[in-house]
Structures are given as structure tokens and as C-alpha cells.
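Case 243 in the screening queue. Each case pairs one protein sequence with one candidate compound; here the compound is fe (ii) ion. For every case the pipeline is the same: read the inputs, emit a complex structure as C-alpha cells, and attach any notable structural observations.

Predict complex for case 243.
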Amino acid sequence: MKKDTMINRLMPAVTDRDKPLGGIRYYAQGGMTCYIIRGKNGDLLIDTGLFYIHSGLEKWLEAYRIKHLFLTHAHADHDWNAAAIQAKGVKILLSERDKGLNRHYMTQPVKPTFPKYRFRNLTQWVNGSIFRSPEYKPDIYFTGSESGLLKKLGYPAEIVPLPGHTYGSAGLLSGKVLYCGDAFTALWKRPDITPHAVSIREMRSSLRRILEISPEWLACGHGLPLRFEEARPVIEDYLRKRG
Ligand SMILES: [Fe+2]
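Case 243 output:
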């Protein structure tokens, strides 16, 4: 399944077949994780990662029939391969609050969520302005009030707006799993608060929303899926100190 490329040697992919976690279908490589939810009429891909995971991701997708792509938000490390996937007839869903963010990172300048991320935040601004994903036009812009949209499309999931990291950041709740994009992270192989947010206030209320939902599993945009019980104390601690 995996090609023996330099990228694959430096950053090996991990999939649900290599390491099953909660029955979640995932493809993780180079710190980025994409997911699939199976539907009645086809499958839903969540996020696409950066350019260097494209060939491995495509191979993994061969076992599925992708009809829709749900972007948790329009940052390049989530939407880089969206245009290529859309060219195969896949329909893209994105929050209307992230309209115009693709290729225009600084229209939603992020702030550090902790003082220790100040320098990292500057590098995000530079990287975000340099790494501009290929242009695409979403087929469906959803709003915060369309939680039933995915059911209509045949997927056992509902959209959960989780704004803060970007204004349009959104997750999907399907059974025992909350797919949360960058509303929370497992970037450094451990549960953590996302380092950057365009609105710290909205990010905090999204964290409270995640606590309310208390899913069994949290499937983040970076890092492998984790049991929510591992994330809960990190979120509660952050809200207690900075909420
Ligand atoms: Fe992001």
C-alpha cells in the first residue's frame, strides 16, 4: 500500500490497518491525520494533509469510494490536496466562516494560546503566507445551524461548529467519535491545546462544547486518535487557568 519514497522513509504513514484505534478509519503521516466516515451512498473524507502525504493518502483511499470531502478548516495542512481530490468528482464542504481563507492565511491571523507559542506563532504567519494550497472552490458552504446536512447526504454524522482555531473550524460527531480538526490536538503525540487560534475566546467556548459532548474518542487533525479521558484533564486545566 505504501510506496517506498523518501517521504515514506522519513515520515512513515500509520493507518487504522497498522494500528487499530476505536474502529476509526484514519491515515496519519508527517504529523497530519485524515479520516473516513462511511456513508450509504459513498464515503466522506475528513481533511487532506499537505502535498507530501498526497501519494500515500491516494493509495489508502483506493479502498474507498469518496463522494464528499469535509474540511475542518481552510489551513494548508488540511486542504492542500483538496483541489486534486475535487478534480476526481468529490464535492467539498467547508464552513462559510472560512470562505476566502484558502491561500489567504493572514485574513484570519492566529494568536498564541500560551505565551510559550509566541515565536511559533510568528513562524506560522510566515509559513501560512508562503505555503498556499492549490485553489479550490467548495461545493457546499455550511453554516453553524446545518447540523443535519450530513445525514441528508447519507452519513451517520453531524456537524459541530468548533470555532476559534479559525472562525470556520468545525468538527463531526459520529457515534462515539468527535472528529475535531485543530480545535484540540495530539500534535506532539500527547493531548494538548492547539497552539494557535484566531479567537482565543471562541476557542475556549469550543473546548467547553467538547467537554459537554464528552465523546469516547477524539480524532484530531494532528496525531493519532485518542481516548477523550486522556484529553479531558488537559482541557479542564486550560479552562481553569485561562478560561
Ligand atoms: Fe490549522
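Case 243 observations:
- Residues 80 and 133 are 5 Å apart (CA to CA).
- Residues 228-242 form the longest helix (15 residues).
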